[in-house]
Amino acid sequence: xxxxxxxxxxxxxxxxxxxxxxxxxxxxxxxxxxxxxxxxxxxxxxxxxxxxxxxxxxxxxxxxxxxxxxxxxxxxxxxxxxxxxxxxxxxxxxxxxxxxxxxxxxxxxxxxxxxxxxxxxxxxxxxxxxxxxxxxxxxxxxxxxxxxxxxxxxxxxxxxxxxxxxxxxxxxxxxxxxxxxxxxxxxxxxxxxxxxxxxxxxxxxxxxxxxxxxxxxxxxxxxxxxxxxxxxxxxxxxxxxxxxxxxxxxxxxxxxxxxxxxxxxxxxxxx
Amino acid sequence: xxxxxxxxxxxxxxxxxxxxxxxxxxxxxxxxxxxxxxxxxxxxxxxxxxxxxxxxxxxxxxxxxxxxxxxxxxxxxxxxxxxxxxxxxxxxxxxxxxxxxxxxxxxxxxxxxxxxxxxxxxxxxxxxxxxxxxxxxxxxxxxxxxxxxxxxxxxxxxxxxxxxxxxxxxxxxxxxxxxxxxxxxxxxxxxxxxxxxxxxxxxxxxxxxxxxxxxxxxxxxxxxxxxxxxxxxxxxxxxxxxxxxxxxxxxxxxxxxxxxxxxxxxxxxxxxxxxxxxxxxxxxxxxxxxxxxxxxxxxxxxxxxxxxxxxxxxxxxxxxxxxxxxxxxxxxxxxxxxxxxxxxxxxxxxxxxxxxxxxxxxxxxxxxxxxxxxxxxxxxxxxxxxxxxxxxxxxxxxxxxxxxxxxxxxxxxxxxxxxxxxxxxxxxxxxxxxxxxxxxxxxxxxxxxxxxxxxxxxxxxxxxxxxx
Lengths: 271, 468
Prior knowledge:
The complex is a heterodimer.
Chain A: H1 2-28, E1 32-33, E2 37-39, E3 48-51, E4 56-63, E5 69-77, E6 85-91, E7 101-106, E8 114-123, E9 130-138, E10 147-150, E11 161-166, E12 174-176, E13 211-215, E14 217-218, H2 219-231, H3 243-263, H4 265-270
Antiparallel strand pairs in A: 1-14, 2-13, 3-10, 4-9, 4-11, 5-8, 5-10, 5-13, 6-7, 6-9, 11-12
Helix pairs in contact in A: 1-3
Chain B: H1 3-25, H2 34-45, H3 53-58, H4 65-71, H5 74-77, H6 96-103, H7 117-128, H8 134-163, H9 169-179, H10 182-188, H11 194-213, H12 218-234, H13 241-257, H14 261-285, H15 291-294, H16 311-329, E1 331-332, E2 337-338, H17 341-367, H18 376-403, H19 419-431, H20 442-467
Antiparallel strand pairs in B: 1-2
Helix pairs in contact in B: 1-8, 1-9, 2-7, 8-9, 8-11, 9-19, 9-20, 11-12, 11-13, 11-18, 13-14, 13-18, 14-18, 17-19, 18-19
């Protein structure tokens, strides 16, 4: 019995040391968390669309919640002739003359009804910052050749889309056109989610395009941003930053204790 | 302290910690029907009114509620449009019924349509926290749910120890399954009737095990009957324990008469058929099952034509089986945060294998017990467990058959009152794939499997989806 206990304690310490070393290595070795993402609008639900063509422009503001913003996916519809190009700029503000990153995408590369990924080197200082996506086109003369899926209403609180049509080139008067309501197009996964029934909103002024953000940020910065998110607006213990590392640490300890016991020779024979 | 008590203490510690983790990860309101249950409790406890639909239509909601929904991005995470026009100018008159029903399919929890035993009990606590911040109120009520979950784990442990007194193996196995099932922890640490429903159903199974294995004292039978009534007054999805109780009575009767086992199988087959037909027709006649608690029935709604399958109904059944599986293993919040479909495919395989193993186990040890290690009493318990799981499944899918519609889901949490028998049966099936010399690995692999799935869900699904 004493030997078994000693063996268990020894195993316990070894497992803890391994976990601790993995964590410390990750922390100081600059490891990154790459699976966080913000889904402003998924392709699971019915959607609306706006046309990208030479007389239109589209912007979408958003806020990055984590460091390491490294990918933006745009949900396009492409029934067109594939002769034009779309230029997408990531800017600090929509009015910025310069872009943080720019993409020049041939229309032919954009698949119908799929997210198109825009990958770029991680922006490690992106946590909490606002950005703007600006869409421009070249060689797309008429509407309905290349479209971007949008929401019916303002489902994303971190920013909004602006759809502007300029009547004729170099005309000073631009017109903000309300996004027309299209026929309902259920997403391909709607069959998985039969009870989703969204109510319609009467407010069609503020829409958002269908986009998703992906992060590949440093571990410490991502965890710090996560703690900010976890504690925001909460009260009681759940609003305290110290509570989360404490509870996670206790959980790991207890979990390791259980796993060590059930895997130990003593545990396997006694249980 | 004995080592077995130490293991139980460790499991309970894990339960409490995991409960706190799930309570903290899921922001207030992001649980099935949680806002509606909260409002019913608030009206009972703080306003001292019976929360009928009429009262709810005329009772202003707490003014901080729309802000709380907005701050925690509930509408965004739930992929629903935010209700508009709920600004600070009219908050003294806006009701929760208007605010919530405009945007959510989840209905009100109203007296006359829903059993309110759970809400009445919690209203006593709620009355004492009236002056607390709305978010604090939510957390305090959620902590009460965590108490139910912890007690359920205790019952599961003692259930296993009752059936297998010589070992803690099965106590660890079923506790670990319940403990590390992410949906269970999510749903049952929120404000709703699922947590007490699962507790009382687990108590029922413990009492039945004691009756079958020890002896049928009148105290035990009385306690079982009380637990059945309490369960029905808390959650209509516990209705399956009625026919499960009948199964136990049949076993005791056939045992007393010393009749051959084949009579039991025949009786259970008839009972199953009756439950199937009865559940569907009762659902049709009782306004979605709620009439069982409110005693409001409409027999004219019964339609036996639903028992004849056609192409459309088969498509609906396949769809809802897939949906039910997803909803049991990983469909969080307001049914919009889900485990990756590849993980679910792997779980289909694991569950398929466990079902095959379970069939082998039942055949070898219960149906044709030639060289079984189980006593006759233990075999009886497994008959009750299997019957309970089947009746619970029938109860889950009765609304689908009754309405011939996928709109009823079913929610995976409707199966949680049967989690104790399901955990035990699945582990027995899982064990069958370990040859005798590797038998000691079954439990550690089992525990590690569910710990791995749960950890992956927390790190890769819940945190990125809710806080992304």
